[in-house]
Amino acid sequence: MKNLVDTRCRNVYLRPAEIHVSGRPDFVSTILGSCVSVTLYSSSARAGAICHSLLPSGVIEDGFCYVDSSVKFIFEKLAAVAGTSEDFEAKLFGGSEIIGNRDSDNRVSVGARNVEAAINALADLGVPIVASDTGGNSGRKIFFYTQTGEVYMRRVARAFTQIEASR
Predict the structure, then answer these.
(1) Rounded Cα–Cα distance for residues 117 and 111 (Å)
(2) What is the pLDDT along the chain (167 residues), one digit of tens a residue?
(3) Cα(128)–Cα(146) distance, integer angstroms
(4) Is residue 55 within 8 Å of residue 16, measured between CB atoms?
(5) CA–CA dist 100, 75 (Å, integer)
(6) Among 27, 28, 24, 26, which Cα is nearest to 14's?
């Protein structure tokens, strides 16, 4: 990837419940399990935005934990940077079922609900999803280049540690 990215760009690590919006070339990375990341990109402005959200819905006053309010927030901030939202495109990643297929009371997993919340938020904003990799049972590490909208993804294998009780 060394030759793919402008050497003047900043490297940014995005932690859970954080966002990044930039009109300059930044290389943003994050690691996802049941959380989701949505990237937005404006080709006319060569600007991008990304969120790393933990739960499906909630108010922005509680931070960037929630998918629905974080997607709306990065949409508004990127529109301010780009001057328009007409050419926005989105990419969606994460929503794995790291611990198991279902919550304990047999409801759909948090990961699946996060993905659904992202899809609904983007549909409400009229932003097309041009690429996605969601669900499954492994994590993902993604790398987002804000100047081109490119996303590189690597799966993170599940690791189990068996602890044996000694008698």
Answers:
(1) 10
(2) 445 555 678 999 999 999 999 999 999 999 999 999 999 999 999 999 999 999 998 777 777 999 999 999 999 999 999 999 999 999 999 999 876 544 455 567 999 999 999 999 999 999 999 999 999 999 999 999 999 999 999 998 765 545 555 44
(3) 17
(4) no
(5) 32
(6) 28
Helix (H) or strand (E) run with residue 118 in it:
helix 110-125
Enumerate the β-bridge partners of residue 36: 53, 94
Using alpha carbons only, what angle is made at residue 17 by residues 60 and 28, rounded to the nearest 5 degrees?
Answer: 120
User: Are 134 and 117 within 8 A, CB to CB?
Assistant: no
Closest-CA residue to 136 (of 167, 81, 97, 89): 97
- pTM of the model as a whole: 0.85
Distance of CA 89 to the CA centre of its chain: 13
Q: Where do we find the tokens 């990304």?
A: 50
**Which domains can be identified in the chain, with CATH numbers?**
8-156 (3.30.1330.200)
Task: At 63, list the tokens.
Answer: 């931070």
